[in-house]
Amino acid sequence: MSQARTKNAVEISHGERDLQLGLEHPNWPEEGCPLGDPTEQPPTGAQRWERRPGYLTRQRTDRDDRLWEALLRFPNAPVYGLHKRPARQPAIEGRSNFHTFRVIGRTRDRDEQGQQRAQIGDVYILHNGLNETSDFDLHYRLASQLLENSERPAVCIIRPFPSHLTRYPYSDMFAEKPLDTFLLDSGDLFRQFMRFMLETRWLLSILVPRPSYSVITGGKLVDCEDRSDSRKLAQAIFDEWNLMDEASPEDRRRARKEGEGRQDVTVTAIKTTIELLRKQLLLWSSGTTGERIPASTHPEPPAVHMIGYSLGSFLAQSAFFAWPYAISGNVTLFGGGELRKLSPTAFAQPEEWQSVLHSLRYELDRAMTGDGIGAQDETIVKKKGPRVPVGKIGPLVPVKGRVQGIDVETFEYLRRVFYEVFLQYYQGSYRTRLAEFIQRMLFVTGGQDPIVRPGNVLDAAPSEGVNLINIAGMSHFPTKPRKQLQKEQRDHWLGQLGRIIPAFAKEADERRLDVLRRSWLDDKRESLHPDALEAYTEYKRQLDEVGEPPWSGPSGSGPPLSDRWFGKEIDRITETIAGGAGGWVLVSRNEIPPVFQTEKVMKRYAAALHHSEDLAADEFWLASQRRETLLNNRDRVTLMITDIAREIGFEEVPSVFPARSETPGVAHLSQAQLDDVEDYFRRNWEDAEPGVVRVLSSGEFRPDQLGELGKVVADLQGLDPEDPETEISVRFLPDVWIGLDERLITDLLEGIEVEEGSGRAVTEAAIAAWGTGLAEERAPRKTVLREALEKAGAAAGLEKSLPCETLLQSSLKSGRLSIVEFSRAGLNPRYRGQRITRSRRAGQLLIHWALAYEAAGVEPEEKPAAV
User: Fold this and answer.
1) 125-151 pLDDT, tens per residue?
2) Residue 307 — φ and ψ, nearest 5°?
3) Closest CA relative to residue 738, chosen from 865, 625, 847, 604
């Protein structure tokens, strides 16, 4: 008679899988749990599980440094109905509303009674790879090394991705694996991602030491009056769980309550897990931070670090990029690059893997529009108990501010992270994120890894590069070496990574706290905190570039401006009026610029432009200073906008800051906030004296409606200005900021008497007259005088020596005239616009501005159709 093999503790026994643990029992694990029985045979390398109130624990004996291990339950995010699911796919019976995760620590950090001696300083959260369903070997090996080399008391948390590790329901080697379900139902990858990220959000809300973060960027944590209060936080998490659970009552994947009065996910169950994790395993405390501004010299335990292996690296990066203010850094092991470039040959043929990613986009597009969803097959799935219909779902549209029970802001934010970080559909956005967090990201690759090649990581890297360790001879599966070289490299480098990662994590956390120190907002969240402002001012000196922006040549009309160069050019323009300087600022936009609005809008703009908190705070602070300069010198500012921009400028739909390829997305403002913004704009810019705002009624105009310039522009376009059928289209404004310094304004006003109180009108008219003169000089009909002037200019080496054109060229060259044209790419930080240095383009913009100036206040013959 053969005897069953004794399993090693790294292997997942059938009884350890979540569906076998009786997690729904209200008195788990003391009741309803098969583990921890006195007759339980312990595996090799560990003692048997012991039941404690609310969790299971055991000692591990398979490492030189003895470890303890705790197994806690946590609610599954009940997210269903996000896409059309194939009705004939096998169904899992007996689904649970809970899953388990494992916490691992050092025995020597505990006293004889098993209590923690000191507060845990570091939490390493480990994420698993694709199709990991049988063992924890790599995670235990890595945890042992990390805990051995961590300077502060630390723990590791192993969090299985849905359907992986202990969340995988089967022990049969012939059952379908997670990748099989993704191949049959590609949309399920997005659903499982959303579940995991929502659960991550709950876990982070438990772990972070601060009750709130005065930051601009990043996703929201659980909205709770006081996260340090376990009961209140448990209630907030339960409320979110319940809304998701009730959103898809007919979905057959939903775990159902059988019978009246059955206890399942409850506030009490969630509170138990929170208190066990905080009080017993981490000695967590929110009192260590108080109201103190974050600083690298004052660590805030626990620091949370993300570590991901293979597919788990994409999950770890997604979490890090979603909540960078709460997570110190990210380590990617044998992963990274673009998901589509992975070649998981150990699990599937490359074409099969590509089919998942290819069809996923179309599945999600259909889900967002509802196309074909209503016709979903209503096959009845036979289960133990009553038959449950598949049901129908419609397009994913917000219902009372929620999508399938998820807060719409959180849903949209996580969906964007899925597209841009997990899948990397838009490579530029991923590179932008890497560039902004380059010092808090570490990549480890294998030199003989056929699945994730080092080149994949480098191809996706920004121009600055990435922190990369490439281990020669290492395969994708370090715990399953096929060659002696792989085993030797694994044995050496796993120990080295155990030293490198804690040191890197410490440095990353110091950088995170440093970033928060110089970007923390004040109590009203309307400006930088005074202490943060002091730190920011010191940092800004280092951040400011000197000299000229890099420009390699003839493309475009001037140097293209990346993020901070763009800000410096706008500052150069506002300096023409700062401190009472006698220049003038013309702002011409087809939308209401954020700098003319409230702090909330400027913060929103900064968050839409940047991922990193310090860069967002820098953008916000500089915009605040520009706004202050404009307000204090409004008598020398002209803002021109279109009637359409004024009409929709304070509406959420369309969004004020639409989603663009490079941006992290922004939160919606409430209607009350939008009303405040409109009231601010009206009081400070429209109604305040002197009147700053000119509104262009977009449409078609007769030349005579636009004065002398109208006739010249008609001539420029080859039209007869005297023909009553001739119309000039003025439907769009040049998207520019124009700065004219005091010397240039003096030249334009030479010989003009300015009566008291008429300075604005006279100056604006003089600038418009300059535009008219430029148009006349560029018109095709030449006079004898003009030909003589052009010949004289050519003989002198000038492009032209016509009066208006000559003034334009000299003003651009001397810096008396500065023009910045905004990018049509929107909020792309790599290209926000360009400084105009070529007189031809500068003249076109000035003529366009002058034409709009003449048209402003005049009713067009024909207005554009309403959109």
Assistant:
1) 999 999 999 999 999 999 999 999 999
2) -130, 125
3) 847
C-alpha 29/C-alpha 36 separation (Å) is: 9
Q: Which pair of structure tokens corresponds to residue 72?
A: 């806690």
3-state helix, strand, coil in the chain (%, to 5): 40, 15, 45
Identify the residue whose tokens are 């109905």. 81
Q: Which helix (H) or strand (E) holds 319?
A: helix 311-322
Residue 424 tokens, joined:
């990397």
Please, are residues 502 and 151 in contact by the beta-carbon 8 Å criterion?
A: yes
Is it true that the peptide bond before 34 is cis, omega within 30 degrees of 0? no
CA distance 336 to 319: 14
Specify whether the CB–CB gap between 259 and 291 falls below 8 A.
no
**Structural contact between residues 582 and 760, judged by C-beta atoms closer than 8 angstroms:** no
Output the CA torsion sign for 155, 156, 160, 164: negative
Q: How far apart are CA 559 and CA 549, in angstroms?
A: 7
Provide CB contacts within 8 A for 833, sequence distance 6+. 560, 561, 566, 569, 820, 821, 822, 823
**Gyration radius from the chain CA atoms:** 32
Q: Which residues contact 750 (CB under 8 A, 6 or more apart)?
A: none
Could you give the CA distance from residue 321 to residue 477 in angstroms, rounded to a whole number? 26
Token pair 């069809």 is at which residue?
359
Q: What does the pLDDT look like over 463-511, one tens digit per residue? A: 889 999 999 989 888 888 888 988 888 889 989 999 999 999 999 999 9
Tell me how far the alpha carbon of residue 651 is from its chain's centroid: 23
* Predicted TM-score (pTM) of this structure: 0.89
Q: Are 837 and 558 contacting, i.e. CB atoms less than 8 angstroms apart?
A: yes
In what order do the strands lie in the sheet containing 817-822? 560-561, 833-835, 817-822, 736-740, 584-588, 637-642, 693-696
How does pLDDT run across 281-330, given as a tens digit for each residue?
999 988 655 578 999 888 999 999 999 999 999 999 999 999 999 999 99
What residue has token string 């009750």?
Answer: 211
Q: How many helices (H) and strands (E) does the chain have?
A: 23, 23
